[in-house]
Amino acid sequence: MAVVNIRDTRESAAVSTSLAYSPPTWTWTSFPRRYLIAVMAFFGVFNIYSLRVNLSIAIVAMTENRTTIHANGTIGYDQDFPWSSKEQGLLLSSFFYGYITTQLLGGWLAPKMGAGKLYGLGILTTAILTLLTPLIANIGLAPLVAIRILEGIFEGVTFPAMHALWSRWAPPLERSKLVTIAYSGSYFGTVVSMGVCGLLAEHLGWASIFYVSGTFALLWWVLWFVLVKESPQEDRFIDRSELDYISNCLGVTANQHTLNVPWKSILTSLPVWATVVAHFAENWGFYTLLTQLPTFLSDTSDLKLDKTGFLAAIPYLAMAIVVQCGGQLADWLRSRWRVETTKVRKIFTCGAFVAQTIFMLATAYTHAVTPAIICLTVAVGFGGFAWSGFSVNHLDIAPQFASLIMGLSNTVATVPGIISPMITGYIVQNKTEEGWHAVFMISSIIYLSGASFYGFGASGKLQKWADQSSDPATFLPPKAASPKQRHSSRKRTENKKKKG
């Protein structure tokens, strides 16, 4: 293997080293700890989104008109909560008022207090607040808005924290796979929540939605607290061969506690803003459907809530599957075919956005539920490929500052969660098909704009400002071992296992 020049980008060195060091073989009895973290993170993100989306289903049951026959024989219509369309839009967007405030804070706190601890704490607190939601809702709209803002504040630290954790656990050529395994939990969480919450609301009442989702998240936190460690070096159950593999691939990195954050370089970096814009574009379409799809189906059809919930979940089931496939395909292209990281990120992100633009436009001109669901399923499904592009990009361009860049990116990408439900609520006040067509047209335009900007400015290479070592060799992975040395290392590992 050629010696890596000290002036080469760290991406090239890291990828070359990853190719030199093959991942150790594993079985179900020696499941790799990095993939255990990916699975636990998957269920963590599953909970994040189930706790977030539950109100989108519950609000339909909370505000629906129920026919009541009074004692005198007259027929009346009652609602648990007579909120207007604008008030519902405010309530659905209130979560994001809190969520947007703690993104950068989460990116800053994660390396200091421990990324795993911060991730778990965010979900634990949100679960407790979710369990209190039915009680708070009966007090009034303002307290319910307040508790949703609090939930957003605590969930806001989770994604930056997860990126900080991956900067220590994910070998470069496994980043797409590990990150997308974890983040696909958002879509599985959405699918299950929309389906199960519809059934819960129909048969056990809307309050059961919050009790079930909150309890499940509490149980997950117990497992996360016990199983997940901050780094491979701190995990006493990790196999030595896996520890060596991760350490060799990632190399020796500077202490994140003492790094000087190059804010000016981050804020003036075109690749950073390309990632931010792509994240904004994807989240606009995602949050529009996440908060409004059940309402769209209710307004444009005569379906009952349990069926509405399952239909609304179909697009996210497609996305959950595509996200997993996209992550595998992206890393396969990089490792097997040596496709440049920049090209892989652009192809997956821009291709997905163009496809989403086309099928969102098709949705705007459909006049029946079935074609609309098909078009939305394809549109949302293609979004899964984008997550193998821009969502991993933070780790490509500045792995040591990935949590901060993710915090910046998610701050801007949270804006759609605030304004999209309010704009949609205003446009569809009269519950007409024309109003919903306008909503889908807006999403199409934003997708296309995001594809254009990302295609122009994105990069998959380590940025110069991200390398802060006084000694460049500190940031280079160790020299790859020869085949003879790797064979000797494997022999020693096998002998240790036999003795143990």
From TrEMBL:
Residues 484-500 have a biased composition (Basic residues). Keywords: Membrane, Transmembrane, Transmembrane helix. The keyword S-adenosyl-L-methionine does not apply. CDD domains: MFS_SLC17. It is found in: Membrane. InterPro entries: MFS, MFS_dom, MFS_Na/Anion_cotransporter, MFS_trans_sf. It comes from the Eukaryota. Residues 468-500 are annotated as: Disordered. The chain crosses the membrane at residues 35-62, 90-111, 118-139, 145-166, 178-201, 207-228, 270-290, 310-327, 347-365, 371-390, 402-423, 435-456. Residues 33-462 form the Major facilitator superfamily (MFS) profile domain. It is a multi-pass membrane protein. The keyword Transmembrane applies. This is Major facilitator superfamily (MFS) profile domain-containing protein. It comes from Daphnia magna.
